[in-house]
Amino acid sequence: MFVVGVTGGIGSGKTTVTNLFQQHDIVVVDADVIARHIMDKGGEALAAVSDRYGQQALFEDGTLNRAWLRERIFQHPEDKQWLNELTHPLIRQQILTQLQQAQSPYVILSAPLLVENRLTKLCDRVLVVDVSEATQLERTQQRDDVSADQVQSIMNAQASREQRLQAADNIINNEADEAQLVTQVEKLHELYLRLALAKRSTH
Ligand code: ATP
Question: Is 138 domain-assigned?
């Protein structure tokens, strides 16, 4: 499978861009969605959390008390490490499964932390959605009703614009309006179709 990794900082426009690829019938695997579901009821990860912390980590219906766990790992760095070691391999495995099952000429892996979590290794090409930090701040605040400080602290925890751009094979500049994304995505879609075909013919 030919995998295109799509990344970008908070509020850069990843979802807006990947929605446009979906309109070309390209399957999008979303690492954020997978990460959110890794603690679903009945799963291996929730069982491990429940073994370690008991009932205090769960609601009465057996689902995870996310606020409790967030506070716990905030207070105990070693628990944060334990949780990462538990969840990261499971998330990676689920990503691989979904990439393998995708039924489209190529598949997109969308991940805000593609570079930070070294998911670039799973990708044939890396596409970075790029905007200035000022635009990230403005659009995220408009979308989420959060303070500039909150957005800035998330931006500080993510890779820098330069680090992301260094990992990029292709870049979509998303400073202008959404309409200009359509032609950029169309051109890249044609490119990825060609590259995916070339990869298939050499295997
Ligand atoms: P996150 O990582 O926070 O999930 P994201 O990278 O997926 O964000 P989007 O949700 O696609 O970003 O875009 C952020 C906000 O900016 C959304 O409200 C979106 O509608 C808006 N937006 C995206 N592109 C543009 C654009 N070119 N012009 C104006 N607004 C835009």
Answer: yes
With 0-12 / 13-18 / 19 or more C-beta atoms within 10 angstroms meaning exposed / middle / buried, residue 20 is buried
Does the predicted model carry a pTM greater than 0.90?
A: yes
Of the three residues 103, 128, 163, the one that is the final residue of a domain is 103
Same domain? For 95 and 170 the reply is: no
Residues with CB under 6 A from ligand 1: 8, 10-16, 112, 139-140, 143, 174, 177-178
CA 142 to ligand 1 center in whole angstroms = 10
**Distance (Å) from CA 15 to ligand 1 centroid:** 7
Q: Angle 8-10-12 (CA atoms, 0-180°, nearest 5)?
A: 55
Q: Whose CA is nearest to atom 29 of ligand 1?
A: 177
Check whether residue 54 and residue 21 sit in a common domain: no
State pLDDT tens for residues 170-195: 999 999 999 999 999 999 999 999 99
pLDDT at residue 202, as a whole number: 85
Q: Decide: helix, strand or coil at residue 1.
A: coil
